[in-house]
């Protein structure tokens, strides 16, 4: 499926719709990964969650990307610095920070804080000379106001929230970095290479975690969530997000990303029993309104 999408050349008219649809797909699927991270916080150590997630993702994307990456190995070597930085930010560090946050932070809080990352995406894009447009800026501000109100109306910060702030910075930087990916470097080749390098960079931390914390029990309650985050939240969602960035840019895709707090809150309520109060519902309305306004800009 990813190979077909990678070869697809959308018409000019369909580009905005396809880009926003792919950004929405990635956002919804990623929402489940925050709930999964929170659900596994007492059974699988954070680094081991990240390592097995990306190993599963690597296996899932290899049939589509390994051959293309081999054919483009010279191009990859020429841009190795960019690929390594993307691997470090988007694979090695980002999800490890999210899993660390899941030890103490409710899933709904994780989604709220991550919704701040599109602001950083927009700042990076504006700094590169891209005009954002009045509607998109207004949408970003409205959605951001909803996120800030949601955070301010909660129970206050815990230590995991600081890890999530760091994760949001990593993801925003990764998304901005995608704009510098060479156009001739195939999407699945880039995905496979970043997954491979990111997993390799996790190996030392995985070894330390196994030595200090021990392994986890492989059972349905641990293996199935790791398969979900490996196949869907990594292979599928990252391909969709990277493709969305290439079609509509990080700031417009980032506005759609504001849907994540809504999705995470609903999933955490349904799966983990975390409550959603009137303040959260009001803020979700602001976030959704900002998404709709910004996407139209």
Give a structural overview.
With 297 residues, the protein is an all-alpha fold. The protein contains 14 helices and no strands. It is globular and about 45 Å long. Mean pLDDT is 81; it is low at 1-9.
List descriptors.
globular, 14 helices, disordered N terminus
Strand and helix map with partners:
Blueprint: H1 2-7, H2 15-39, H3 46-71, H4 73-78, H5 80-101, H6 107-114, H7 117-127, H8 134-152, H9 159-177, H10 187-213, H11 220-248, H12 250-257, H13 260-272, H14 278-296
Helix pairs in contact: 2-6, 2-11, 2-12, 2-13, 3-5, 3-10, 3-11, 5-9, 5-10, 6-9, 6-13, 7-9, 7-12, 8-14, 11-12, 12-14
What overall form do the CA principal axes indicate? globular
* Average of the residue pLDDT scores: 81
State the helicity in percent bands. over 70%
The largest sheet, given as strand count, sense and whether it forms a barrel, is: none
Global structural class? mainly alpha
Name the quaternary structure.
single chain
Give the DSSP E fraction (strand runs of 2 or more residues): under 5%
Low-confidence stretches: 1-9
Tally of helical runs:
14
- Count of extended strands: 0
The secondary-structure element order is HHHHHHHHHHHHHH
Please give the alpha-carbon distance between the first and last residues: 30 Å
């Amino acid at each position: 499926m990813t190979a077909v999408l990678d070869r697809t050349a959308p018409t000019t008219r369909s580009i905005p719709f396809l880009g926003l649809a792919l950004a929405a797909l990635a956002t919804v699927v990623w929402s489940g990964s925050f709930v999964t991270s929170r659900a596994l916080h007492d059974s699988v150590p954070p680094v081991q969650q990240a390592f097995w997630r990306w190993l599963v993702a690597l296996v899932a994307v290899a049939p589509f990307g390994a051959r293309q990456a081999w054919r483009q190995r010279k191009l990859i070597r020429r841009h190795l610095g960019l690929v390594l930085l993307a691997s470090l930010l988007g694979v090695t560090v980002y999800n490890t920070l999210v899993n660390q946050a899941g030890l103490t932070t409710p899933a709904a809080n994780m989604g709220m804080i991550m919704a701040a990352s599109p602001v950083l995406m927009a700042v990076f894009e504006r700094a590169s000379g891209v005009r954002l447009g009045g509607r998109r800026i207004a949408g970003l501000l409205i959605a951001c106001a909803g996120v800030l109100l949601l955070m301010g109306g909660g129970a206050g910060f815990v230590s995991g929230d600081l890890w999530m702030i760091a994760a949001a910075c990593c993801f925003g930087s990764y998304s901005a970095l995608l704009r510098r990916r060479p156009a001739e470097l195939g999407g699945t080749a880039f995905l496979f290479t970043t997954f491979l390098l990111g997993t390799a960079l996790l190996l030392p931390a995985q070894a330390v975690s196994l030595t200090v914390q021990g392994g986890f029990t492989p059972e349905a309650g641990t293996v199935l969530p790791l398969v979900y985050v490996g196949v869907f939240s990594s292979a599928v969602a990252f391909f969709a997000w990277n493709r969305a960035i290439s079609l509509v840019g990080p700031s417009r895709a980032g506005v759609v990303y504001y849907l994540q707090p809504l999705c995470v809150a609903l999933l955490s309520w349904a799966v983990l029993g975390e409550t959603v109060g009137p303040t959260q519902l009001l803020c979700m309305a602001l976030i959704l309104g900002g998404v709709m306004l910004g996407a139209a800009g």
